[in-house]
């Protein structure tokens, strides 16, 4: 029903609002309901002047940065290709990596957290009906306005409300028929797929990608042997 596109677009926002109001009225945080907690208004100040290359932890930071960067690229490109396949479109992996790099370099000037095209946000954006990159612009402006003026209002948002939004959006990206097709085409690739799927869903993205990567390495070693 194309004329009801606004329902899926506004649904995540309504879940957050209704969940927050409900938690505030029943004092859910006093009854064990996890909430977002206190949020300060404003954006991070410029911190590029605090950058140092002579500290004792530089080596650890470099190693952590390389690992985080590899995982971020793997996650972002995987999400892009998954959504592109659904729409029968093509993406340019080089442009994706350039975008991630530039985005994180600029973000690092204000001590921002490592940013990628995560499964959760991309899935919610796709499920809400986003068609073009303009949806990201609108989303960014909305986040900026929330950080500047409305951040404290989200204090009582239950974590379960945020989780439900992500779960509902992610379910739409799971293609059981592709699992079946992969099982018929190549059993080992199916095993890699299931290891990655189970690892990411039930544990963490790092565990899922690491486990599936080890299987791929093991397969390569066996072939060379």
UniProtKB/TrEMBL annotation:
Pfam families: Sulfate_transp. The chain crosses the membrane at residues 6-26, 60-78, 98-116, 137-154, 160-176, 188-209. It comes from the Eukaryota. It is found in: Membrane. InterPro entries: SLC26A/SulP_dom, SLC26A/SulP_fam. Its main location: membrane. This is SLC26A/SulP transporter domain-containing protein.
């Amino acid at each position: 029903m194309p004329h009801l596109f606004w329902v899926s677009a506004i649904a995540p926002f309504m879940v957050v609002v209704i969940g927050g109001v409900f938690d505030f009225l029943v004092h859910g945080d006093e009854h064990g309901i996890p909430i977002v907690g206190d949020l300060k208004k404003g954006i991070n100040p410029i911190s590029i002047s605090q950058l140092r290359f002579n500290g004792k932890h530089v080596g650890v930071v470099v190693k952590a940065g390389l690992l985080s960067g590899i995982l971020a690229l793997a996650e972002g490109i995987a999400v892009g290709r998954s959504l592109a396949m659904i729409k029968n479109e093509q993406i340019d992996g080089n442009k994706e990596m350039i975008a991630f790099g530039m985005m994180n370099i600029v973000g690092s000037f204000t001590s921002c957290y490592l940013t990628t095209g995560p499964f959760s946000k991309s899935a919610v954006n796709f499920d809400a009906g986003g068609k073009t990159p303009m949806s990201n612009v609108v989303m960014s402006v909305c986040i900026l306005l929330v950080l500047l003026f409305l951040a404290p209002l989200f204090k009582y948002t239950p974590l379960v409300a945020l989780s439900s939004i992500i779960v509902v959006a992610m379910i739409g990206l799971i293609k059981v028929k592709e699992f079946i097709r992969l099982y018929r085409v190549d059993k080992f690739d199916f095993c890699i797929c299931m290891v990655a799927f189970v690892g990411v869903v039930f544990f963490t993205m790092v565990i899922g990608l690491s486990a599936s990567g080890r299987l791929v390495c093991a397969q390569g070693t066996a072939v060379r042997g």
